[in-house]
Amino acid sequence: MEIPTREAILEAGKLLIRVKRSGTLQQQEFLVKKIPSPNGTYFVLHLDNYIDLSELLRIAEEYKIPFSVKNGVVFPKGTSTKDFILP
């Protein structure tokens, strides 16, 4: 499976990812959400469901993009909101 670029994800506005929820692999559609911050507006891929944080961390590391779900927000290791500010 080829991982899309950050620009392609922002242009499409969504991303379909296989995640493990409750021990079952499911395809979930994450939508791009823009969040204002003091440093500027940054983006996350958002889903209105609960996902185990370890699974969320796995996909954040794999796609190198922040993810947001009902139970938390996860950034790839070594990054913060400043790394995802929109131009």
Overview of this structure, please?
The chain has a five-stranded mixed sheet with strand order 1-2-3-4-5. It contains two helices and five strands; from the N terminus they run αβββαββ. The longest helix is centred in the middle third of the chain and has 11 residues. The chain has 87 residues and is an alpha+beta fold. It starts with 5 loop residues before the first helix and ends in a 13-residue tail after the last strand. A hairpin with a 2-residue loop joins strand 2 and strand 3. It has one domain.
Features:
87 residues, alpha+beta, 5-stranded mixed β-sheet, 2 helices, 5 strands, globular
Q: How many domains?
A: 1
For the largest beta sheet, what order do the strands appear in spatially?
A: 1-2-3-4-5
Gyration radius, rounded: 12 Å
| Helix-strand sequence | HEEEHEE
What's the arrangement of secondary structure elements?
Elements (H helix, E strand, L loop, with lengths): L5 H7 L1 E8 L2 E14 L2 E7 L6 H11 L3 E3 L2 E3 L13
Parallel strand pairs: 3-4
Antiparallel strand pairs: 1-2, 2-3, 4-5
Write a concise synopsis of the structure shown.
With 87 residues, this protein is α+β, with helices and mostly antiparallel strands.
